[in-house]
Amino acid sequence: MTPALAVRGATKRFGAVLALDGVDLAVFPGEVLALLGDNGAGKSTLIKCISGVHRLDSGSIEMGGVAVTMGSPAAARALGIETVYQDLALFDNLDPVANFYAGREIAGPRWLPRGLRLLRRRDMSRATGELLTRLQVGIADPHATVGLMSGGQRQAIAVARAAAFASKVVILDEPTAALGLRESRRVLDLILRLREEGHAVIVISHAMDHVIEIADRAAVLRRGRKVGEMRPTPDNRQAIVSLIVGGDS
Amino acid sequence: MTAEAGAMRRLGSDPLRLALLAIRLGPALILLLLVVIMSMLSPAFLTMLNVGNVLAQTAVIAVLAIGQLLVILTRGIDLSVGSTLALASVTGALVYSAAPSGPVVVLAMLATGMAVGAINGMGYVLGRLPHPFIITLATLSAGRGLALWLSGGQPQQGMPEVVQVMGGGSAGWLPYSAFLVAAVALAVVLLTTRMVWGRWIYAVGGNPEGARRTAIPVDRVVISVYVLSGLAAGIAAIVTSGRLNAGSPTFGDLAELDSIAAVVIGGASFLGGRGSVGNALVGALMIGIIRNGMNLLDVNAFLQPIVIGVVIVLAVESDVVRGRLESRFRTAQAARS
Questions:
Q1: In principle, which of A74, B82, B257, B333 could form an S-S bond with B252, CB 3.0–4.6 Å?
Q2: Strands A32-36 and A217-222
Q3: ipTM of this model?
Q4: CB–CB of B179/B172 below 8 Å?
Q5: Does B213 sit within 8 Å of A94, measured CB to CB?
Q6: A53 to chain B: nearest residue by CA?
Q7: Which residues of B touch A142 (CB under 8 A)?
């Protein structure tokens, strides 16, 4: 099968620091790939290169077997990659619907310049409602601003927003980091539903229990290199952890 | 979840919700209260003549406040609007003496306002200044200076008919300037609540970095609000110049502070992303009514700025209380989800 996204020989340098050193990575449709590594291992740099925030110094990115360049976040999004960053990038002063469509509002008429078009609020509201129902994300009050919602609801909205617009790859940076048990559970279920819908999902996480539960495969980075790749199971948990921290120590 | 739990949830959140609603409507309720109190204290207050007066006197603050609101929504501030008003009025007067055509003078005043706004917005964004306070402080100074220089420090008599009518004319007791305010307000309500650009203004104010990531043209949005605020200053210049049939470098002195006060009294947040045209108008009317009312009641004129100062503090304090209530609301909601 062709990977939804494949990175080959990814190298990225910040001044004297070699943040990525020839990393290969592939993720397939309907697969959850966990990206593991200690702080500074290069996880964030790698996903920022994939999502168009940084550009690779050398190496290539393919989507569905076709070479692509991620010149900007907008370019990555146009190619079907959506990223949920740790700080969520939600608009606390807007309601869930406005958050969903921020920057890609449904509006018309088409002959007007984009900024001057009139919002099709009912269309956006209906589409958001349908998607949230499909992903089984319950929002207590869909007209409240997102700033008034709990951490879990906010995370769910951010993940659902990514799912709504990603045609191919969803990248999640520490999706359960700030959440309680029950809220984490909901977000994990949501990730599993994304997999069922055929998305390729890349998850950065430090929570090994979550990784073992949801990930089909784990790739471990250390000091900018990929040092291992395996299916995470309760049995090889120790092996993965020592890969992350450096087994020789 | 059981029915009991549902009922408890509702009990837990409803008083909070009501309190939130009351505080959201706060500015309008306080305005209503103010009107009731004033009409009881002074029989002259609710006469058509006086209402027309209040509207005419509030028109300038109201238009400036609508422009200022757009800027404050993006976490900015425009200190230059008073100076811009003066500069636009002087430009209008000078253009009128050279080319006595109504439309040309009107266009010149509006263009002057937009030009200063463009300097503010582009200076802030392209100059990567730490805060718009700085560039608009600079244009506050330079704009007033330029107005004084161009006019030789003297008021320039004479404005075209159309400007005089817009600034000083009335339909019965209703001043035309009130219609102008209504038109400006309607246009900006359309912008802020129905148009994509307006949604972007709120998004940029709520989370500039997030807006950038969602490919909203943040820089252009920020520049645009300063241009629109400058345009509002140009419109305010038409009203002021028309009413007094002159252009003067002293017009609009401290008007920037009135416009900021109106927006803040109207409950907009300096942190950006929250505020509405309606509430900014309520804030402007409140300032207008306090001034008018104290005149009617023959209160010492020196007391007016003190009262307005107190109102500003009360308004912002109610905003703080609203913030607290909202975070309590959020905790309550998190606890039961």
A1: B82
A2: parallel
A3: 0.84
A4: no
A5: no
A6: B213
A7: none
Comparing CB atoms, the residue among A74, A115, A140 nearest residue B333 is A140
Question: What are the sequence ranges of the domains in chain B?
Answer: 58-325
What is the per-residue pLDDT across B237-274, written as a single tens digit (0 to 9) for each?
999 999 999 999 999 999 999 999 999 988 888 889 99
Planar angle of CA B117, B121, B124, nearest 5 degrees: 135
Q: Does residue B1 surpass a pLDDT of 60?
A: no
CATH 1.10.3470.10 fits B58-325, yes or no: yes
Q: How far is CA A176 from the centre of its chain?
A: 12
**Contact at CB, A148 and B195, closer than 8 angstroms:** no
CATH number at residue A52: 3.40.50.300
Percent of chain A topping pLDDT 70 = 98
Q: What is the pLDDT of residues A180-221, one digit of tens each?
A: 788 888 889 889 988 998 999 999 988 888 999 999 999 999
Q: What is the bridge-based pairing of β-strands B246-247 and B156-157?
A: antiparallel
DSSP element (H, E) containing A32: strand A32-36
Q: Between chains, do A105 and B199 touch, taking CB under 8 Å as contact?
A: yes
Nearest CA in chain A to B336: A150
pLDDT tens-place string over residues B56-78? 999 999 999 999 999 999 999 99
Is A115 within 8 Å of B334 when comparing Cβ atoms?
no
The one-letter code for the residue type at A92 is D
> Which pTM value belongs to this model?
0.88
CA distance B107 to A223: 62
